[in-house]
Amino acid sequence: MVLAACAPVPQRTSVPAQWHASPNFDDRRPNFVIIHHTSDDTLERALGTLTDPIRAVSAHYLIGRDGTIHQLVDERSRAWHAGESKWGANTDINSSSIGIELDNNGREPFPGAQISALLALLTDLQERYGIPKTNVLGHADVAPRRKADPSRYFPWKALAERGFGLWCDAPSPTPPELLDDAVALQALGYDVSDVEAAIGAFKLHFLAEESSRVMNARDRSVLHCLLRDKAR
Questions:
Q1: Is residue 9 in some structural domain?
Q2: Based on the structure, what is the number of domains in the chain?
Q3: Residues 21-32: tens digit of each pLDDT
Q4: Model confidence pLDDT, tens digit, residues 187-223
Q5: Which of 110, 133, 161 is the last residue of a domain?
Q6: Which structural domain, as residue segments, surrounds residue 116?
Q7: Burial classification of residue 90, based on how many CB atoms lie within 10 Å of its CB (0-12 exposed, 13-18 middle, 19 or more buried)
Q8: Which of 75, 84, 101, 209 is an active site residue?
Q9: Is 101 a catalytic residue?
Q10: Which strand (E) or helix (H) includes residue 102?
Q11: First to last CA, the chain
Q12: With contact defined as beta carbons under 8 Å apart, do 166 and 137 qualify?
């Protein structure tokens, strides 16, 4: 009786409806992992930001420079880390993702201990949820007009070698002559409502370039290679 009284009240519609509880449901199941850097110089400052009710931002995990993993939000809950974001047809990334913040100011390499801890966490998440490798993304990938994290120092290739995310090594295959940048980027998953922003996010992730928003022959070759890998 006491336990029943303490159980959370189920969310229901405000219009008249008969309640018939069904046992056939489960918790939210994430299908994406979104990686961020905190932009802070210390873990303490990052923890303060991510737990401040006034700032209203959070993530499921924060990984320190020393590799310590801090969990801030239950995986079954929706953390507030991606904001206005989109990947493919998904326009509510927060509702379908695990957010991982890395203690990094954006102007420094990511320490080996931190990346090792991230890989261990990604392995655990992938084993439990079956998250596709193509759905391990950066914040800039899903919010190209607003964000540029994780920075160009983030080792996406090392993650891809472990099965998290896509990568394409040189030499890349020659793309079709009529490859359209916007169409190809959209096929990969990018929101191309602002094509230049999408190009910038693509080049940050796959070419470690922070400023260029113009595609060249090398860039199109890499993009074509990634699309082939995604289709496999």
A1: no
A2: 2
A3: 777 777 889 999
A4: 999 999 999 999 999 999 999 998 889 999 999 999 9
A5: 161
A6: 32-161
A7: middle
A8: 101
A9: yes
A10: strand 97-102
A11: 54
A12: no
